[in-house]
Design brief:
Shape: globular
Distance between the termini: 50 Å
Radius of gyration: 23 Å
Strand content: 15-25%
CATH architecture of the largest domain: 3-Layer(aba) Sandwich
Strand order of the largest sheet: 3-4-2-1-7-9-10-8
Largest sheet: 8 strands, mixed
Number of strands: 16
Structural class: alpha/beta
CATH topology of the largest domain: Carbamate kinase
CATH class of the largest domain: Alpha Beta
Number of domains: 2
CATH superfamily of the largest domain: Acetylglutamate kinase-like
């Protein structure tokens, strides 16, 4: 049993879906669970639907969702012929799930509606691909991941119930392989015990692949991407970026923690638990072996460079000039935990705390309001956080030249610079 995960860049056009089929034709004698993401930037489009709906702009939300519908129905025309009506009916069922919400008024919090609406992206894309493959003599079974992955109701950051999910995978998913070598499901989403849709965190399809690998004792996981493998930096940020042949779980966890976008941060632990190798391979060039990630520590790694943009610096000073250690710090971190905020960088002095976090106006306002009795809060926006592992003085000088350094933290292996690039 292997797990293949195909991201949005692998499914956003007829040619790429056709190429997905070519990849699978090279593995017809293997049993593979195929995890599919939403097409292209569809998650972004659905997020806009949620925003308009939550602001009470139902007509605009419905108009934007109509674009989502039109896109998928148009793709269907190119992908499926003989079972077009059956496929249309299944897509329509998913459209109806969302439209039923959009005609109403929000009475729950934003994150709840986010999950109920945004989850449709994966359901729609996986349906299209399943029908396309079946029509092109690549037999497969489709399953709604919400019937398998049980989670709690922490919407947008749902936590997996491993025991229930393992039982449901054994009872509902594994039997499908008795009649086919390929089973298709969705990444990113799950369901509560009350059948409410949940999501596992942005870009969570990688995590889904790892979850199933652990649940099903998979031989390996392969993430097919539009890059040659894991690189030491984004080439758009660092022209000298190179592909790395081998990495350890530990190194990838560190990279993900600091914001590298190649692998979802939660992906590694389930694989590490059972020593399941993770391959990151090129969707376009099957001759390339890509990157393999295992327990083995890699030697002589180049500098690993990660940029996080749209950062905000919160500067919190105690209102009565008392020390922040102890109860004030504990209280602040409880507020951050409650609001699902993970600081990207923290620092403190005797009477102040400094927190770098992703820019999110609503959550910044909520933090400020929650802590206003004990802290004065000031905010600096439009910052960039640069993290370099295995750094050298030369590379830091190169990357920070002519930049305003707001904050710096440094250990033996890692340096972080919060910079104002404007």
């Amino acid at each position: 049993m292997k797990i293949f995960k195909f991201g949005g860049a692998s499914t956003n056009s007829f040619d790429r879906i056709q190429n997905l089929g070519y990849i699978l034709q090279n593995h017809t004698d293997e049993k593979i669970l195929i995890v599919i993401s939403a097409m292209g930037k569809m998650t972004n489009s659905l997020e806009k639907v949620v925003e308009e709906f939550y602001e009470g702009k139902n007509e605009e939300a419905l108009r934007l969702f109509q674009k989502v519908k039109d896109y998928h129905l148009n793709q269907l025309k190119y992908l499926v012929t003989f079972q077009w009506q059956k496929a249309t009916n299944q897509l329509t069922d998913f459209f109806t799930e969302v439209e039923w919400l959009l005609h109403d008024k929000p009475v729950k919090d934003y994150d709840y509606y986010y999950d109920q609406i945004v989850c449709s992206g994966e359901l729609l894309s996986s349906t299209l691909i399943s029908y396309y493959l079946n029509e092109n003599r690549i037999p497969n079974k489709w399953i709604d991941v919400r019937d398998v992955l049980r989670t709690d109701d922490t919407f947008r950051q749902a936590k997996v119930d491993w025991d229930v999910s393992r039982k449901q995978a054994r009872e509902k998913l594994m039997p499908l392989f008795d009649n086919t070598n390929f089973v298709i499901t969705q990444g990113f989403i799950g369901s509560t015990d009350e059948n409410e849709s949940t999501t596992l965190g942005r870009e969570g399809s990688d995590f889904t692949a790892a979850i199933f690998a652990e649940l099903m004792n998979a031989e390996s996981v392969t993430i097919w991407k539009d890059v040659n493998g894991v690189m030491n930096a984004d080439p758009k940020d660092f022209q000298e970026a190179v592909t790395i042949d081998e990495l350890s779980y530990k190194e990838v966890i560190e990279m993900a923690y600091y914001g590298a976008q190649v692998i979802h941060p939660k992906t590694i632990k389930p694989l590490q638990n059972k020593d399941i190798p993770l391959f990151v391979r090129s969707f376009f060039d099957l001759r390339l072996t890509g990157t393999v990630i295992t327990q083995k520590s890699a030697m002589l790694l180049p500098p690993m460079i990660v940029y996080k943009r749209r950062q905000v610096l919160l500067m919190l000073q105690s209102v009565d000039f008392s020390f922040v250690e102890g109860k004030p710090t504990t209280f602040l971190y409880e507020v951050l935990r409650k609001l699902n905020i993970r600081p990207n960088l923290t620092q403190n002095t005797a009477i102040s705390l400094i927190i770098c976090m992703d820019d999110a106006d609503q959550k910044i306002q909520e933090v400020s309001q929650e802590v206003s009795e004990i802290f004065d809060v000031s905010v600096q926006k439009n910052l960039t956080l640069l993290t370099v592992r295995h750094y050298s003085d030369a590379i830091i000088e190169q990357l920070s030249a002519n930049k305003e350094i707001i904050l710096q933290q440094k250990t033996k292996d890692t340096i972080q610079l919060l910079m104002n690039l404007s």
